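For concreteness, we quote verbatim a single protein encoded this way:
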Amino acid sequence: MARARSSTTRTAAPPAWRRRLMLAVKISAFLAVLGLGALVTAVFIARSQLPSFESLKSSPNGQMIRVHAADGSVLVSLGPSYGEWLPYDRIPAVMRDATIAVEDRRFRSHLGVDPIGIARSVMIRMERGRWVQGGSTVTQQLARNIFLNNQKKFGRKFREWILALALERKFDKDQILELYLNKVYYGGGAYGIDAASRKFFGHGADRLSLAEAAVIAGLVKAPSNYSPTADADAAKGRAGVVLQQMVRNGFVTSAQAASADPGDVKLAPPARQNSVRYFTDWALPQLDLLIDETVKPLEVWTTLDPAMQREADAAIRANVPKGAQGALVAIDRDGAVRAMVGGTDYVSSIYNRATQAQRQPGSAFKLFVYLAALEAGRTPEDKEIDEPVTIDGWSPRNDSRRNSGEVTLRTAFAYSLNTIAAKLGQAVGFQTVADMARRFGITTPVNTHPSMVLGTSDVRLIDMTHAFASVGNKGVDVAPFGITRVTADNETIYTHEVDRSRVLVAPTVAAQMTDLLQTAVNTGTGRAAQIGRPVAGKTGTTTSSKDGWFLGFSSGLTTGIWMGRDDARPIAGLHGGTAPARAFAQFMKAAVASRPIEQFDTQVTLPEAQLEPDAESYYGAPDNMSFVDDDGNPLPMDAPRAPAGDQDYYPDRPAGPLPPNAGIQQPLQQPQRPRDDLAPPDTGGERLDQDWLDRVTGQGQGAGRRDQGRDQGRDAGRDPARAQPPRTPPERPNQ
C-alpha cells in the first residue's frame, strides 16, 4: 500500500542573494523617503523666508560699481541700466514665447527643476567629456540672479534647486516669468527686457517685434558673445536659432519665422566708449568668483596703468594694417595687467581680441618647442643640420625654401628655421611640447600633430603673453590678474595675493630661453622690436600672412601683440617682424622709460658669424700684424687669399699671395655693431634672404668667398678631420 503523501508542503527559504537584495531595496527606499522628506522640509523653510512679490519687484537689479586704476583715478563707474517695469500683460507675447522656447520649453509643466533637462545635460557631459549645456530652468536662473552668484560649485547648485522649488510653491508661473523678464541680465549693463530694448533698439520693450524679441531672448545664454554691439552677426545668428525653437515648440509658424528676418533689425547707435572698457569687461566678471557681495556698492581697485593704456591704444592704431584689427596685453613681473587693447575701436566692436579671440601663433609657438628641448638637456650652442626633413608624411620647409646646413640652435631660433623646430619637436616628443605649452598657461586645446611645432593650434593672446612673462620671471609662473582690492562700505572684502610658488622650469632653462629670445631681437626676425635696452622676444607669422605676432619682455614688463583680420583673410606684407614688432617698440619705449634698465642673466650672444670682426678688419690695409684663428693662434703668412678677379666682391682685398708683414689681427672683444655684409636685409619680417642667411651660417652657395682661405688654414692647422675642400667661388650676390 502506497504511503500517503503529507497534506502539507514545506516552503523553501529564499536564497541569500535575494535576501540581501530585498534588504538593499528596503534601505534605499528608506533613504529615498528620508531624503524626500528632508527636501520637502528644506523647500518649505525656504518658501517661508522668500520675500513677497512686491519686495522682489522693488529690489535692485544689480550693484553700483566704481572701478579705479592703479594710480587711484576712476576708470569708469558702472551700474545697472534700469528700464520700465513691465507687468506680465504688457510684455509682448512674442517676448514671452521666445524666452520659453529657447531657455525652458517645459516651463509650464515642471515644478521648478526639470529632471529631463538635467538628465540630457548629464548625458551630453558623458558623451563629450565636458559640460556643454546646463539643465537650468527659468525659475532656477531667476533664483540664481536674485539670491546667488555664478560660482560653479555643487553646493551653490543645490541651493539653487531648493530656491527654485520654493519659488514655484510661492508664486505662479506668470509671476515667475514677469520677475525673470524684468530682472535678467542682457549685457551692456542692461537688466530686464525694457532696458535691453532701449539700449539695442532705441524703444521700449512693449513694442518689440518678433525679430527683436528673438535677438533679446538669444542674449541670455552669453550676453558678451551675442551682444548686438559686440558682434551683430553673432547676435543675428543666435536670433535665428531662437526662431527655429519657436517653430519647433509651436509658438509661431514657419511662415511667421521666415518673415521675421533678424538681419533687417535696426540697432540703436551705441554710446561712445574707449579702450579701457576692454580691460573692465575682462576684469569685472571675475568678481563673481572673488566675492559673495551682490548688493552693496563696490569700489574695485585694478592694475591698469592709464598712461600705459594710452600708449598701447596709440601703438595699435598707428601700426595696425588698414582693414585689420590689433590687440595688446602688457603684464608686469607680478602678473598685474597694466594695459589691454582688444581692438582698434571699442565703439565699433567690443569683442576683446586680447582675451577671447583664438588664432594660430605661428613661429611664436616655438617658445614651447625650444623650452622642451632645453629642459631635455640641449643648449643654445648645440648644432643641428638644416636640411629637408619628413615626419609622418609632413615635410616642413623654411620660408626661403632653402636650407643652410649645420647651424646652432641659437641661429635656428633667431632666424626661425622651421626644419630645426620640427627636428627638435620630434626628438623631445610632440606630446612633451604640448604639455610644456599647457604648463605655461595655454588654456586652448593643443594638438600633437608634427606641424604643431609651427603654431597650428589656436591660442589666446593673453595666454601667450602669460607664457612669455613666466620665462622672463626666471621660470616662475606669472598668472595675469586685473583686480587688486575690493571694498564695500569702506571695508576691504578682497585683496589679491601674488603666488610666486609655482616653478614651471628650472632657472637655468629660463635663462637659456631668454638668451635665445635676445638673439631673435638683436639679429633675427625681431629686429624691429629693439628699444635701446635689453629686449627678449619672438615673432610669429601664420600661413599667407593671416596673423602677425610679437611677444617680448624688457625691464620687468612683458607685452604681447597680435594683428590680423577677424575673417582670417590674408594681409599683404603682414609678418610678426613688421607691424607687430614696430607696435611693440613704440609701446615699450614709452612704457618702460621711467624704469631702470635691467640686464638679463645671460648677455646677448650673436649667431656664429655675427661674432666675427667687421669686414674692414679682415680686409683693410696692412698693419704689420698677423692673421690669427679663433683661438688666437697665428696662421701661415702664405695662407690663400682671394683668387684673382674676385676684387669686385671684396674690393679692399687684393688678390695673390700675401706680401711680407701683411695681415690682420682678430679683435679680442665682440664688435659693437654687426658686419655690414652680415646685417640682415630689410625684409621686415621672418622671410629672410637666403643668400644672406647662408653667409651668416657659413653654409650653402651664398656663403661668400671671404672665408675660403681663413677656413682652410684654420681647419687644416687645428684638426685635419675638420678640414674642408675649397669652395667654388660663387657669383657676386645682389647688394
